[in-house]
Amino acid sequence: MSETSRDLQDHLVALIRGFGLHNPDVTPCGVPMSVSEAHTLMELADREDRTQRELAVALQLEKSTVSRLVSNLEGKGWLVRRSSPSDGRSVLLCLTNKGQRLAAKLAAARAAKFAQVATAIPEDELKAVLRALEVVVRAMSSAKSDNSAIQKNEEYENR
Question: Which residues contact 32 (CB under 8 A, 6 or more apart)?
Fold first, then answer.
């Protein structure tokens, strides 16, 4: 691993830890739920009436993971499954009133957290930080589609 790659890794790990993303039971904005649950609620609050497949694509998660997540949120009373009015075979995911209230709480907590972070970044550096984050997200997306890293990991695990 090059020194630059190692520096990138160290900074991203520090960012993940700084936001508390390694804590499975609390969102970075302090709401007591998993990050996956929070992202699911926010996605459904932004656009309800999604199929599980559409939700999996939006969250970039496997269908089986989303299936367990949806069952869990349904069990908590945060969402319900409804038959699609346009296609009786399709099942749509909809937030309950409880889920909508929780999503609104999450949105407010998220906005407050990011406002706090943005305020802590010197104004003359904020645009550069945002641009750098765009570049990192693009690079991570292209790296995700590059299977060579996965193949290397599988080779390591098969040793």
Answer: 25, 26
